[in-house]
Design brief:
Elements: E1 8-19, E2 22-33, E3 37-41, H1 48-56, E4 66-69, E5 72-73, E6 84-88, H2 99-109, H3 114-127, H4 143-155, E7 161-165, H5 173-190, E8 193-198, H6 201-207, E9 210-215, E10 218-223, H7 225-230, H8 235-240, E11 245-255, E12 258-263, E13 268-273, E14 283-288, E15 294-295, E16 302-304, E17 306-312, E18 316-323, E19 326-333, E20 345-347, E21 353-357
Parallel strand pairs: 3-8, 3-9, 6-7, 7-8, 13-21
Antiparallel strand pairs: 1-2, 1-4, 4-5, 9-10, 11-12, 11-14, 12-13, 14-21, 15-20, 16-20, 17-18, 18-19
Helix pairs in contact: 2-3, 2-4, 3-4
Length: 361
């Protein structure tokens, strides 16, 4: 994505959608710039797929203030009239057609000649490295190859926005990781706007320019992947983004964005404030990732600790320690100097712990 390119290719404002009395989307607003890889992240029932279906035209929203793709108002247009294409998890390929016929299908129904459609379809297969298998049956392809065919079929029509609904969910772990890199490379080559739906924080962090985290039909937090990873603004966001240690306490004082916190049990530690609005005396949560916690080192910013459990997980070892503030989880990568050393205290840098308002679910 080019930093100086601020042209919006997608703009959705105040989208509301209901299934009977159940509110699936509650005044959701989001946008994507030209050439941006935007990920909508959330668990099942968060509203992410419903949002995708509203954008594509497969769902008609209960109400919407604005819905534009490129410079076209698409709120009342059918799916075929919108400059967007969807790649589904199940691929939705035609088993009775060859690979190249599947890719050319969308061009033919748009009125392209058979010869022109074939040429463009073969070029699209080149992009996904499948031209050599153009004449094969879909049933002769692996799962990863079928996914590439679905991508080629989606991009060959040159939509303004490509919508991807958990497209890697059916692949095994190694193939999924390989396809993440291929998707990123394809998106950069095309300069196309991608809107990607996933429940996987790993996929969101790996591929995205920007992430929108949804919860219960609303946007919980949005920003660059590093923002969500290092600076969640709510307990839900921290938990969803994989913070193993989330502790209750209150803010004692602050120096700029560094806050001094009293945890339950009376220990006083430091962290970095996620919001300038947090004031001394406010209830807070302090969150710190297991791999950011140090053992065997005496720090002023730390807790007295006793080892309770150790679990070997291959690449790393997870440790559980008991402290006055409750159980704490640490992660020790093999070869780290502290892995087998006895310790009686844990600690962390203030920049590695985030403080956000407490009393939030």
């Amino acid at each position: 994505m080019k930093d100086n390119d601020t042209e919006l290719m997608l703009e959705a404002q105040d989208v509301v959608h209901k299934y009977g009395q159940v509110v699936a989307l509650s005044n959701v607003s989001l946008s994507a710039r030209k050439g941006e890889f935007l990920t909508i992240l959330g668990s099942s029932g968060s509203g992410k797929t419903t949002m995708l279906r509203v954008i594509s035209g497969l769902e008609t929203p209960y109400s919407v203030k604005r819905l534009r793709i490129g410079d076209v108002d698409v709120a009342n247009l059918p799916p075929a009239k919108r400059s967007c294409t969807t790649v589904f998890q199940n691929y939705a390929l035609f088993p009775h057609m060859s690979v190249v016929e599947n890719v050319a299908y969308g061009l033919k129904i748009r009125g392209n000649s058979k010869q022109d459609a074939l040429i463009e379809a073969l070029d699209a297969l080149d992009m996904v490295q499948l031209r050599a298998k153009a004449d094969r049956s879909i049933n002769q392809l692996s799962g990863g190859e079928r996914q590439r065919v679905a991508l080629a079929r989606a991009v060959v029509t040159k939509p303004s926005v490509l919508l991807l609904d958990e497209p890697l969910g059916a692949l095994d772990e190694r193939l999924r990781q390989d396809m993440q890199l291929e998707l990123m490379d394809l998106q950069r080559k095309l300069g196309m706007t991608f809107v990607y739906i996933t429940h996987s924080q790993e996929e969101a962090l790996t591929m995205s320019d920007r992430v929108v985290l949804m919860r219960n039909g609303q946007v919980e937090q949005s920003g660059a992947p590093l923002d969500l990873f290092d600076r969640p603004v709510t307990r839900f966001a921290a938990d969803f983004m994989g913070y193993e240690n989330i502790l209750d306490g209150k803010l004692l004082n602050r120096d700029g964005m560094i806050g001094q916190v009293e945890l339950h049990g009376g220990a006083v530690v430091q962290g970095t404030l996620a919001s300038d609005a947090i004031k001394p005396g406010d209830p807070i949560n302090l969150a710190v990732r297991a791999e950011r916690v140090n053992s065997g080192i005496r720090r002023e910013n730390g807790l007295e600790a006793t080892l309770a459990n150790k679990v070997y997980r291959g690449k790393y070892t997870d440790l559980v320690v008991k402290t006055s503030a409750g159980d704490f989880r640490l992660r020790s990568w093999h070869g780290a100097p502290d892995e087998d050393q006895p310790f009686d205290k844990i600690g962390w840098k203030a920049s590695d712990a985030v403080i956000f308002p407490g009393n939030t679910a």
